[in-house]
């Protein structure tokens, strides 16, 4: 039975994400409490939760800690416990050592370990059970991201009455790469438990539909996938079929080019590009103290003519090394001079339990040390490297202080930093250099789009950005701003949930 709320019925709208919507904080007086997470997803969904009996199911961030559900503001929070072993095998292992690199074009080598997948399945089942407990009859459940791809089908199995959406925040790989995954059928079946599967880019949605068509043999018509409700084929049957290793080994499927006879569930797979809380960022950019702070930042950097900025989680997908290499070469050949220019790189600590992240950190620290040692002067730094996370107020001040924003990701589901930079620019100045391998590049067409693997192109774009005339820069920025003002994260959430509400579910084709 669903857990009771005030109505005694469970919750009508449930979000399921690896991380809970609140962080545990220690106050100055030593007391502890919970604070709403600052991220865009929480900002977008919190108002919906507050107006619709909402609950959020997720891990609260500490190992081996079992907490009872609790309320925070108008949100009901359902903590899912993870043991140290779960964190090692499900979070650092299968999620961030297998899926993350595989889904990001194998920039780092994915590791395939059976015990990691076992943990992934076990933890996904736990998330599904916690959700099934709190969802009201016929509730809408929205599952988030690659850590929970098995949850939709597990949940449908437990609670066929629910309407289930899934959103993948990271890329979905091309079928040739996805095919490497030993548990590819389980993942596809898991996702197909949803009624609507959202992706960042049209190409991600199409990669997914092609994988389903090729591997499962299901009929796909535009964005709709026909998932047969009864079939004799043990490998490729309903997504409700069990998750087992044998099913994953099946490969030879008959691909349907017309809807097969029988009853099928319709599942839509389509792009819904995520965005940011634009209004909050533009409001911060108008605050006197934040404007003053942005001026102070430029002074602290020795008042260079041009401030270049990079802001990323310290992740190998972000192309931080490529960016630094281009910058270093521009200093070496004299195209840029210290004093005239300064680079600020904020790299927030991330996933330090995963080896590839530890190695990247060492490499970046070495590169920064080399650039500083060679080019810093007593009065002017060539580069400021900040291995910290900052509150949004400080980030907005940094965006305002930066003349050029460098987003050079090798692969990125969306890249919200690019959108935040645009939202934070008050006048129509500032230039965004943006990798074409980000989801944001589909919408921010007036940025200077680059291939970060091409170091000469990247150097040319940095120089072009530092010397761009203000008319060109402001025409571009005005266009970019229009994009992020009209397409903010609330619109993303509403578009997705409206579509989920419209979907009809089943189709019957006569033989
Ligand atoms: C990406 C993922 C999110 C994840 C975030 C931070 O944006 O799409 O699901 O929460 O990175 O990573 P972490 O591993 O710290 O949750």
What does this structure look like?
With 511 residues, this protein is of the alpha/beta class. The protein has 2 domains: 11-274 and 492-509, 3-Layer(aba) Sandwich (Rossmann fold); 278-486, Rossmann fold (3-Layer(aba) Sandwich). The chain is 41% helix and 21% strand. The chain contains 17 helices and 19 strands. The strands form 3 sheets. Strands 1, 4, 5, 6, 7, 8, 9, 10, 11, 12 and 19 form an 11-stranded mixed beta sheet that branches. α4 links the parallel β7 and β8. α1 packs across α17, α9 (278-284) crosses α14 and α11 (320-332) runs parallel beside α12. The longest helix is centred in the N-terminal third of the chain and has 21 residues, at 114-134. Mean pLDDT is 92; it is low at 232-246. 6-O-phosphono-alpha-D-glucopyranose (G6P) binds next to β1.
């Amino acid at each position: 039975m669903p857990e009771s709320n005030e109505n005694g019925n469970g919750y009508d709208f449930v979000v399921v994400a690896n991380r809970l919507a609140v962080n545990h904080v220690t106050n100055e007086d030593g007391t502890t409490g919970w604070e709403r997470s600052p991220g865009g997803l929480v900002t977008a969904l919190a108002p919906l939760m507050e107006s619709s009996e909402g609950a959020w199911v997720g891990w609260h961030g500490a190992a081996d800690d079992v907490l009872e559900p609790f309320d925070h503001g108008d949100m009901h929070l359902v903590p899912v416990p993870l043991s140290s072993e779960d964190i090692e095998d499900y979070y650092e292992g299968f999620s961030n050592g297998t899926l993350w690199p595989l889904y990001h074009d194998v920039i780092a080598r994915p590791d395939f370990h059976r015990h990691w997948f076992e943990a992934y399945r076990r933890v996904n089942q736990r998330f599904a059970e916690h959700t099934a407990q709190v969802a009201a009859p016929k509730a809408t459940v929205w599952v988030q991201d690659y850590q929970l791809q098995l949850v939709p089908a597990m949940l449908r199995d437990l609670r066929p009455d629910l309407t289930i959406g899934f959103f993948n925040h990271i890329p979905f790989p091309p079928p040739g790469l996805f095919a490497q995954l030993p548990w590819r059928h389980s993942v596809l079946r898991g996702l197909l438990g949803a009624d609507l599967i959202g992706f960042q880019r049209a190409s991600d949605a199409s990669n997914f539909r092609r994988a389903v068509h090729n591997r499962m043999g299901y009929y796909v018509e535009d964005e709709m996938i026909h998932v047969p409700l009864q079939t004799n084929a043990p490998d490729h049957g309903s997504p409700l079929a069990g998750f087992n290793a044998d099913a994953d080994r099946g490969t030879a499927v008959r691909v349907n080019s017309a809807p097969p006879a029988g009853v099928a569930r319709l599942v839509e797979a389509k792009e819904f590009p995520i965005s940011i809380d634009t209004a909050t960022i533009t409001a911060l950019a108008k605050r006197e103290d934040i404007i003053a702070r942005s001026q102070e930042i430029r002074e602290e950097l020795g008042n260079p003519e041009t401030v270049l900025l990079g802001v990323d989680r310290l992740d190998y997908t972000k192309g931080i090394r490529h960016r630094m290499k281009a910058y270093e070469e521009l200093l070496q050949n004299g195209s840029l001079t210290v004093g005239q220019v300064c680079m600020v790189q904020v790299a927030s600590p991330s996933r330090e339990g995963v080896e590839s992240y530890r190695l990247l950190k060492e490499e970046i620290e070495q590169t920064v040390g080399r650039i500083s040692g060679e080019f810093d002067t007593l009065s002017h730094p060539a580069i400021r490297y900040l291995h910290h996370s900052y509150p949004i107020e400080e980030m907005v001040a940094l965006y305002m202080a930066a003349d050029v924003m460098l987003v050079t990701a090798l692969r990125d589901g969306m890249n919200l930093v690019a959108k935040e930079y645009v939202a934070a620019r008050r006048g129509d100045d500032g230039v965004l250099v943006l990798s074409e391998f980000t989801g944001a590049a589909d919408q921010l067409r007036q940025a200077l789009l680059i291939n970060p693997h091409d170091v000469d192109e990247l150097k040319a774009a940095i120089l072009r950005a530092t010397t761009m005339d203000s008319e060109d820069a402001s025409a571009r920025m005005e266009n970019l701003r229009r994009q992020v003002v009209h397409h903010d994260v609330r619109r993303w959430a509403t578009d997705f949930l409206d579509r989920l509400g419209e979907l009809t579910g089943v189709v019957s084709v006569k033989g």
